[in-house]
Design goal:
Helix content: 25-40%
Distance between the termini: 38 Å
Order of helices and strands: HHHEEEEHHEHHH
Largest sheet: 3 strands, antiparallel
Oligomer: single chain
Radius of gyration: 17 Å
Structural class: alpha+beta
Shape: globular
Low-confidence stretches: 1-28
Length: 240
């Protein structure tokens, strides 16, 4: 089998595993959070710390491969430049065109004790989340929808200023809906981050900062997107 064929089989198995975990979630089993080095496609739940010396060396090598560039103007940016918010219209990313909105896919991926709207296999109405950024447990329902927000690890406005403004809409839509670039988190933490890169904002939970830097780098490398020199320096420092 070719390398491409092996990759396709592995990715397919990962997606099926994630979907089967969704079906089991009402029983209350907590999904094991996955370290980013073991989760290159973003289908594993959560964000586990990068702990071993060997993994931290691998993390710095990964981050070291990032291109750097100056940050451009935000002129022309709006959320609609990346397609309709959470629409299931992206192609060539996990969960694409499965009939569920991207946000619900991610809540189901990372949530514990997930419950769905009656008659729906998509719409999440309540769950528990172990927030990777702060470590707090959030017991969420749609009545308090903003208490959990789905963060773009590489923010859309940051991407715009680093080059996505020159991409075709189809690529921007993939970037905005790629589970590798998406983490459900405590809403206040997401709002504090805004469109910042790592030099301006890191998760309050120090133990997860290397993992966050790795995830940021994985997204940037996948889409050949540069980061600022200051962001790269800060990301490297988290894993040394």
């Amino acid at each position: 089998m070719s390398t491409r064929g092996v990759f396709t089989v592995v990715l397919g198995a990962a997606v099926l595993f994630s979907l089967s975990a969704r079906e089991d979630s009402p029983a209350g089993a907590a999904p094991a959070r996955v370290a980013p080095l073991d989760n290159p496609d973003g289908v594993g739940p959560g964000l586990a710390a990068v702990r071993s010396a060997g993994d931290r060396r691998a993390a710095t090598r990964l981050i070291g491969g990032l291109r750097v560039a100056g940050m451009r103007s935000k002129a022309g940016y709006s959320r609609i430049r990346y397609g309709e918010n959470w629409a299931d219209t992206a192609r060539d990313v996990p969960y694409a065109r499965n009939g569920c909105r991207t946000r619900d896919d991610l809540l189901a991926r990372d949530g514990e004790q997930v419950r769905y709207r009656r008659g729906s296999e998509c719409v999440v109405v309540s769950m528990r989340l172990r927030d990777p950024y702060t470590g707090r447990i959030v017991r969420w329902s749609k009545k308090r929808s903003d208490e959990i927000q789905v963060d773009h690890v590489v923010p859309l406005s940051y991407g715009w200023r680093m080059g996505t403004s020159r991409w075709p809409m189809s690529k921007r839509t993939r970037f905005a809906n790629d589970p590798l670039n998406l983490l459900p988190v405590y809403g206040d933490a997401n709002e504090a981050k805004g469109g910042s890169g790592p030099a301006s904002w890191l998760p309050p939970r120090r133990g997860i900062r290397c993992a966050y830097a790795v995830r940021f780098a994985q997204v940037a490398l996948k889409y050949d997107l540069p980061v600022t020199r200051a962001d790269k320096r800060v990301m490297l420092a988290q894993c040394r």
